[in-house]
Amino acid sequence: MFNCVFKIKKYIVLAFFFFLISFTLGYIHSLIAPELLDQMVEGLSPLVEKLTSLPNWQLALIIFFNNVLKVSLSMFLGVFFGIIPFFFLVLNGYVLGVVATGVDLNIFFASIAPHGILEIPALLIGVGMGFSLGFRALKYGKSIEVDWRELKKLTILIVIMLLLASLIETYITPTIINLLI
Question: For residue 83, which of 137, 29, 122 has the smallest C-alpha distance?
Fold first, then answer.
């Protein structure tokens, strides 16, 4: 199953590079303009209130389906020259960088690491596949070939990773954060 990941490793590395750069830019931008974090928090507060009022199992499902939808779109819409996965990845990295300036970095990493250890690689693999399709579309045009068995294996792997990440994010991460606060 992991052979399909190794086949697109250069695209995953490229995705990681863009993610890291956008995270760094978001972090620096928020340090220069602290009101950016305030605006983001203000805009997201109503959504966060609604989500945190849900039972854990519903929250886990929402997180899971949201992540599967976004990563799937990044994978399959990558055929449009990799543009959509690029913007999705950069936006996520940037927002995460901005958020990182709002709390102590130990708390930030403790709140991201438990589920992020699965969620971020799933994102990078999905975007890497999107980049792979995009580069093939640029190279071959309409005659792009897709190995559907490999794509199916990759999709199953990503879905499993995102399912586990959503459960960890809902049931374990809050406990870790509460221990640190």
Answer: 137
CA-CA-CA-CA torsion sign (93, 98, 102, 105): positive
Q: pLDDT digits over 72-109, tens only? A: 999 888 878 788 999 999 999 999 999 999 888 888 88
Structure token digits, residue 69: 């939808």
Can you list the alpha helix ranges (DSSP code H) found in 101-147?
105-140
Check residue 146 and give its pLDDT.
Answer: 73
Q: Which two tokens stand for residue 32?
A: 């220069």
Distance CA 66, CA 99 (A): 19
Reported pTM:
0.89
Contact yes or no for 167/60 (Cβ under 8 A): yes
Q: What is the Cα–Cα distance from 125 to 154, expressed in whole angstroms?
A: 8
| C-alpha atoms less than 13 angstroms from C-alpha of 52 in its C-beta half-sphere | 7
Which residue in 171, 127, 132, 110 sits closest to 20, CA to CA?
127
Question: How far is it, in rounded angstroms, from Cα 23 to Cα 6?
Answer: 25
Higher pLDDT, 177 or 66: 66
- If you average pLDDT over residues 15-33, what whole number do you get? 96
Rounded CA gap, 67 and 74, in Å? 10
Contact between 83 and 134 (Cβ < 8 Å) = yes
Closest of 157, 173, 166 to residue 57, by C-alpha: 166
